[in-house]
Amino acid sequence: MCNDKLDYNVVSPNYVLDYPDSKDIEEFHKHVNHNDAMAEIYFKEGQEELEEDTIKLLKNNGKYQNKKQNRYDLMLVVRDQGKMIGFIELRLTQDSNFISQLFSVFVSEKHRNQGLASLMIVHAFDFFQRTGLTAMTVSPTIDSLVVYNKFGFYPLGYDDVTMEKWFKKTEEERLDQLKEEFSDLLLNLSKEPCQEVFGNQCEKSTKYRGCFNVSPRVSEDAKTNVLNWRKKPSSPPLISNSDLGVLHPSEDTKKRKAETEVRESESTEETTKKKSIHN
C-alpha cells in the first residue's frame, strides 16, 4: 500500500490536485451522501455505506488494482486548505473487448463555476493518454451533456462516416441533438475530428490553471505510461509501479451512472455509470 504523505500543507491560496487517502473517507462519504447520483454509484444497494472497492481505492491513495473485476481504478481529488472538495475517477482497461470509463466527476456546490471540473478532466486524461489507449466511455445525464459535448464525446455506436458528419455540426447543434437523442457517449482520440475538439477544449481549460496547483506526486506520475506500471516491482507501490488491471463485465447488477451538477460556463459537471463494451 502507498502510504506516502499527502500534500495537506501546501501553502497557497489556490486549490490543489492530489491523491486521496484514508483521511478523506469521511469527507468523501459526506459528498456522496448529499448527491443522489453519486450515492447511486458509490453506496451499497439500499444502504448509506461505501462499497468496499471504493474504500480500498481511497485507502490506497487513489490507485487500486481490482483483480476481481480485472481493472485498474484511479482517483484524483481537489483540496481547498487540505479538505476534499472534488474528485474524479477513471476505470482503465487493456482488454480489447472492453473500454475504459470515466466513472465519476464531482465538485461540491460551494466550489462550482470555477473551472475545477474541466481541470480535473484534463489532468486525469493526461494519465489516460499516456497509456496509448484512445477510447473512453461515459453515461451522461442531461445536465452533464454540456461538458461532454465540449470535450468531444459523441453518441456511442456511430461509424466513421456518421462520426465525421457529427463533428461538422456546430457545438450548439451537437448539444441540441444530444439532448433530443439521449444516449451513452464515446470519446475516441484515434479519430481526428474528435481529437481536435478534445484538444481545443483542453487548451481553453488552461485559462483556469491559475487557481489550480498540482501536487508534485501527481505531476510526476502523470508522465508515466500506466500500461507499464505492472512491469515494475511494488513494495510499497506508488502509482508508477502499481499493477494495471482490465475491466471485466460487472458481477454487480446495480445500475452504474453518475451525475455531476457542476454548472460551469466552459465545462459543467459530469456523471458516469459503469460501462463495458464488447467489440
UniProtKB/TrEMBL annotation:
UniProt-listed InterPro entries: Acyl_CoA_acyltransferase, GNAT_dom
Pfam families hit by this protein: Acetyltransf_1
Family matches, as SUPFAM superfamilies: Acyl-CoA N-acyltransferases (Nat)
Key words of the record: Transferase
Region (Disordered): 229-279
Domain of life according to the entry: Bacteria
GO MF term (any one): acyltransferase activity, transferring groups other than amino-acyl groups
Domain N-acetyltransferase: from-to ranges: 23-172
PROSITE patterns: GNAT
Annotated Basic and acidic residues bias: 249-273
Protein name: Acetyltransferase (GNAT) family
Organism of provenance: Fluoribacter dumoffii
